[in-house]
Amino acid sequence: MEDVPYRPVKRALDTTVALLLLALLAPFFALGAAAIGIGMLRSAADRGPVLYRETRISSGRRFELLKFRTLRTDVLVRAAGTEPHARLLEADVGNLTWAGRRVLKPWYLDELPQLLNVLRGDMSLVGPRPWPPSMVGQQVASGLDYRLRVVAGWTGPVQVHKGVTEPEGYTALDLEYVEACRTWSSARLLRHDLALLWRTAKVLTRGEGLRF
Question: Is 175 exposed, middle or buried (CB count within 10 Å of its CB: 0-12, 13-18, 19+)?
């Protein structure tokens, strides 16, 4: 697959909307940080940094993805020396902090700091989600290299299709979006991104994240 250009209109949308969301969602940033603080007061096992950083791939380049920390520090210590993937570790409720279980994961608040990644140009608002290097390597070995060719996204078609459960379905949605980035006009792609952002907002307001 050829590289997919990061179009100026897409970058302009990313910068404008990310700045707007950072302003509008400031109370939710405060809520996320406060929940983490309360959790650290409740349990010594929950103590640690507010933010969590993890190496991911976007358009073939490594960057440090930002999240509100949902995992207990001892879990991260045990994962040291490996390539930790928060999403996999978070699948075990026993690995989560109180704030992760009760506040951050159900409402996707842990993902809000990635708006800073968008502003820095590490990723786009819309695109295939960024994966860790080892997972990207496995996907490339299977014949799919699109995560090396396109800027990763904060949200995307996979995140708003809650009924899809099979990996093949996720990949098909990603590939459809990548093809749209390659072939659609800038105006059409802009409308599509705005529609996906609107659908993402509805998912967020319904609180359809992980529940424990």
Answer: middle
Rg of the chain taking only CA atoms, in angstroms? 17
Q: How far apart are CA 149 and CA 1, in angstroms?
A: 7
Strand partners of residue 162: none
How large is the average pLDDT for residues 170-175? Answer: 93
> Picking from 86-90, 106-110, 130-134, 175-179, which range would have the lowest pLDDT averaged per residue?
86-90
User: Taking 60 as the threshold, does the pLDDT of residue 151 lie above it?
Assistant: yes
Instruction: Give the global pTM.
Output: 0.90
Contact status, residue 164 vs residue 19, Cβ threshold 8 Å:
no
pLDDT, mean over the chain: 90
Long-range CB contacts (within 8 A, 24+) of 159-165: 159/129, 159/200, 159/203, 160/196, 160/199, 160/200, 160/203, 162/203, 162/208
The pairing of strands 61-68 and 153-155 is unpaired
Q: Please answer whether residues 118 and 124 qualify as being in contact, where contact means their C-beta atoms are separated by less than 8 angstroms.
A: yes
Tokens of 174: 């990603």
Query: Using an 8 Å Cβ cutoff, are 134 and 108 in contact?
Result: no
CB 118 within 8 A of CB 154: yes
